[in-house]
Design goal:
102 residues, mainly alpha
Length: 102
């Protein structure tokens, strides 16, 4: 990971939040999703972890694995609208169908 993204780091959410929901096979769509997934909780805990870091001066984007993300386009978008990474922003669309699974 560090070879691809020099400042990248792995965050061990379970170390800071040992009671977080752990995914089991039954929580996966391919297994029929008969149990609750902790995906949304993990996203929120990741952002909580990032908020505790000192010196975080850049944008943080959470992107799905099946999405294309062009960082130069994103920077042009936020700069053109006068947005600052020091303020909390949500850019995207809400997936209300997640409420039925999470």
């Amino acid at each position: 990971l560090q070879g691809l993204i020099p400042r990248a780091a792995v965050v061990d959410l379970a170390a800071a939040w040992p009671d977080m929901v752990r995914d089991r096979e039954a929580a996966l769509a391919k297994a029929g999703r008969s149990e609750v997934s902790g995906a949304n909780q993990k996203d929120l805990l990741l952002f909580a972890s990032l908020a505790q870091e000192d010196g975080l001066e850049d944008w943080v984007c959470r992107v799905e694995t099946d999405s294309y993300f062009a960082a130069p386009n994103f920077r042009r978008f936020v700069t053109g609208r006068g947005m600052s990474p020091s303020e909390p922003w949500y850019l995207g669309s809400l997936s209300y169908w997640h409420l039925h699974f999470e």
